[in-house]
Design a protein that fits this description.
846 residues, elongated, alpha+beta, three-stranded mixed sheet
């Protein structure tokens, strides 16, 4: 029975299949035949459309050569309609022997709104999303916009962001699109670690990269925010740092990032394979151009035998040689460095190969992305122009110059093929940024007291690359203002013209007995001889006037005074006190000042009063500054040299005449681990060129030469009343020298971002050679002087005595600006010097 039943069922199934196949074949043939016979594009019916014309919908169905639509072309038309994004649904039906396209149109967006966003403005989000008001709503586009908004927040360090789109129905097939945003907390970098680093500590490498760890000061900056692009850029920065310091085999294997839900931040780990440090074994020059001697480029090489291999120096050498070859008429010459490593000796033999490159010309330079900066401001940074020979070294130099302008967030120079094989097109893509600055700054120092400054500046004035700044200073002892203007390309040449106008007033203090008021104007020309060598030529004219407080304008040391301004509380020979203490004494003196020491009241030196009697003085001078700078970081250097030489000749008109020469050299070098050594040498000579030298033109030195001494606390001094009051004006000297050795070290137990460093140092220096009025012969304001020690001016400590000190310092790159605290103990000094063991200075801008 069971077998029979199975046979019956199997037979029934087979019979049904045999019956169904002919029926399906007839139905399919009937449908295809109907489409093939009945359908043309014009015969298609359209239903459900409101805004979109029926002919527009029909136009997506393309007939074949016979003018009719087969099933394949109908299917293509259906897909094309769906891909337009104009419809929620598209169906094709048969009705009365013809095709009917039934559509459901997407609604129109009435408005696009954002709710919950506080950290990112509506304008920024509106510019990023593709869904626009009065546009058609597309579900796929909404999802894409949601992802875009999420990415914007992640770029701002908020990885916990949630974005939920809401569609609010409105009449007439319209909708409002609202993105509800939950921003979440800022996601920072909680730790940065390095694996495989032996030569440099993690503390040092964290200073190299841009990404920072989050700490209690992170709200002042944004570099602690996790940004994958910045992490990738840090890999390149680390690689270049190692290559610059001789590690030619270095590899930054990976930059691993991991989100830690407990710490609610990212953990970043750089994996490094340092390799060995190499030195330069030899430097050779080879030229395949018969008429060009490779050895003639030797002076342009910045690589020296025996020095640590420096990939950056090699790149700059290639650049200088390429430019020099072009100047000599070899526009297509290429310089390619080749390094042969000796793995046993750890040396690199460098060969600069000079060859004739392909004859490729620049067809066009396209500048894109600059909306404010004029095109010519960008193009003048190129040493090549359209039609010139293509030189990659010159293109790289132009890109570096554009970045250094600090006008743009990003600068990229790419090349693409031109209209022919010997043509190339350069594309300069830029993203501009704000170049105006308004700052209010404040500071305090033990020498100048409190000081405030308000300034406004513009680095790219009118988009023409001009620089302008106006600032006003007001403090306890210093007041004034400064106006500056710089044209970096004078008459189209790479020569900077600067104009400075200033007015400054310095008030009397514990260190200086007189007020000084100056007003001046100085034009200057700047030339960049090399990237590390600059020359500035200048002319300056200024008017200086000094004044004294009323209580120092008495007869005692003023040979030209006929009036008496007694010292407060002075009792004359008659035994009666001054009728107007501190003011003009109206009564007569009796006797020779009552037999009192006329220098015992601490008044200003006769050298100062002589300057007062001379009235305002005009100084007209020409000068120059030659500066050599190889520092790795101008703000916080760890290696390199900064050397300046200044000379000024006063006597081009005016009331004074002298030649002043000064030099200053600072050498920074890593000593061990993260400890940086700083060696500083400085000196100056002032030479009389015919009119005598005023006391005010002398070098006035203090902690700027040897720390541990007060401002203007070193050198020749008026000691005429030193024995009685311990007070006397600093006279300065015509010569000085100074030397300083310092070790700067971080506090390894503190986060790098705190910005604290310690320092220990030793200073030595001297000021000597005063040239000026030293005494009055025979009398003091008509009063005979019997004792030579009572002369109006006696110079002390003008013997070239070496002053020395040792001390410790605290350097803080604080949120309030750079601050420095120093405590120094003088080891050797003159009895007339003034000391100040503790010194503090700093300020901020906000």
């Amino acid at each position: 029975m069971m077998v029979g039943l199975r046979v019956l069922r199997g037979g029934l199934t087979a019979a049904l299949i045999m019956f169904a196949l002919p029926v399906a074949a007839v139905a399919t043939a009937s449908l295809v035949s109907s489409q093939a016979v009945a359908q043309t594009a014009a015969s298609i019916g359209v239903e459900g459309n409101r805004r979109i014309e029926a002919d527009t919908i029909r136009s997506y169905f393309k007939p074949g050569p016979s003018g009719r639509l087969d099933s394949a072309r109908i299917d293509d038309g259906l897909k094309a309609l769906i891909e337009t994004g104009l419809f929620q649904d598209v169906k094709i039906n048969q009705a009365g022997g013809r095709l009917v396209v039934v559509v459901v149109e997407n609604p129109v967006i009435g408005r696009v709104a954002f709710e919950g966003n506080k950290k990112v403005k509506d304008d920024q989000l509106t510019a990023e999303v593709q869904s626009k008001a009065r546009g058609t709503l597309s579900r796929a586009m909404v999802q894409s916009d949601t992802a875009r908004i999420t990415e914007i927040y992640r770029r701002n360090g908020r990885y916990d962001v949630k974005v939920e789109p809401k569609i609010i129905e409105q009449p007439n097939n319209r909708v409002d699109l609202v993105f509800e945003i939950t921003e979440g907390a800022k996601t920072g970098v909680k730790s940065i670690e390095f694996i495989g680093n032996q030569a440099y500590s993690g503390y040092r490498l964290r200073d190299v990269i841009k990404t920072r760890e989050s700490n209690f000061l992170s709200f002042l900056g944004g570099n602690d925010v996790y940004d994958p692009d910045r992490i990738e850029a840090d890999r390149d920065i680390l690689r270049r740092f190692y290559l610059k310091n001789g590690y030619a085999d270095v590899q930054i294997v990976a930059a691993l990032t991991e989100y830690d839900p407990e710490r609610k931040g990212f953990l970043v780990t750089f994996k490094i394979e340092e390799g060995q440090q190499y030195r330069v074994g030899s430097v050779d020059f080879q030229s395949s151009i018969a008429t060009l001697d490779g050895n003639s480029f030797r002076s342009l090489s910045r690589v020296n035998v025996g020095s640590i291999y420096n990939a950056e120096a090699v790149e700059k050498s290639v650049e200088e040689m390429s430019i020099e070859a072009s100047r000599r008429g070899y526009a297509f010459a290429t310089v390619k460095p080749r390094g042969d490593r000796n793995f046993e000796a750890h040396t690199v033999s460098i060969v600069f190969a000079i060859d004739e490159g392909p004859r490729v010309y620049i067809e066009r330079i396209n500048v894109r992305g600059n909306t404010r900066t004029r095109d010519y401001v960008i193009r003048r940074e190129f040493d090549i122009s359209e039609g010139d020979a293509y030189n990659r070294a010159l293109v790289d130099r132009a890109e570096r110059r554009l970045k250094n302008l600090d006008y743009f967030k990003t600068v990229k120079v790419n090349s693409e093929p031109g209209s022919s094989s010997d043509r190339v097109v350069l594309n300069v893509d830029l993203e501009e940024k704000s170049t105006g600055d308004f700052s209010v700054s404040g500071g305090y120092s033990t020498a100048d007291g409190f000081l405030g400054e308000v300034s406004i500046s513009e680095r790219n004035l009118l988009g023409r690359g001009l620089y302008a700044k106006a600032s006003v200073q007001y403090g306890q002892r210093t007041q004034g203002y400064t106006l500056s203007f710089v044209e970096p390309y004078l008459l189209g040449y790479r020569v900077a013209l600067g104009l400075d106008f200033y007015q400054r007033k310095q008030l009397a203090s514990n260190y200086v007995s007189y007020d000084s008021k100056s007003i001046g104007f100085s034009p200057r020309l700047g030339f960049q001889l090399r990237e590390d060598l600059n020359l500035q030529l200048r002319y300056s004219i200024s008017r200086q006037e000094i004044t004294l407080p009323y209580y120092l304008q008495n007869c005692n040391n003023d040979p030209s005074s006929l009036s008496y301004y007694p010292t407060p509380g002075y009792i004359n020979a008659g035994g009666s006190p001054n009728s107007q203490p501190g003011g003009l004494y109206t009564g007569p003196f009796s006797g020779a000042l009552g037999g009192s020491n006329c220098l015992a009241d601490g008044e200003a030196s006769v050298a100062v009063k002589q300057g007062l009697a001379n009235g305002p003085v005009i100084t007209s001078a020409v000068g120059y500054t030659l500066a050599y700078n190889t520092l790795d970081n101008n703000k916080d250097p760890t290696s390199g040299i900064l050397a300046t030489l200044n000379q000024d000749f006063a006597g081009v008109g005016g009331d004074v005449s002298y030649l002043k020469t000064t030099g200053d050299v600072k050498l920074y070098t890593p000593v061990v681990a993260d400890i940086v050594g700083v060696l500083r040498l400085q000196g100056g000579v002032l030479t009389d060129t015919g009119k005598g030298i005023r006391m005010l033109d002398h070098f006035q030195m203090g902690p700027n030469l040897v720390r541990g001494f007060a401002p203007v606390g070193i050198g020749p001094r008026d000691i005429s009343n030193f024995a009685t009051t311990g007070y006397g004006d600093a006279l300065g000297g015509t010569k000085y020298w100074g030397a300083s050795a310092e070790l700067q070290m971080p506090f390894w137990f503190l986060p790098k971002e705190v910005g604290l460093k310690g320092a220990i140092y030793a200073d030595a220096g001297s000021v000597f050679g005063y040239e000026g009025v030293t005494s009055l012969v025979g009398s003091c304001n008509g009063t005979p002087i019997q004792n030579a020690q009572n002369q109006c001016l006696t110079v002390g400590a003008d013997n070239g005595l070496i002053r020395t000190s040792v001390g410790v310092g605290l350097i803080w790159q604080s949120p309030f600006g750079p601050l420095r605290f120093d405590y120094a103990i003088p080891l050797s000094k003159s009895q007339y010097d003034r000391t100040q063991e503790f010194r503090f200075g700093g300020g901020t801008s906000f």
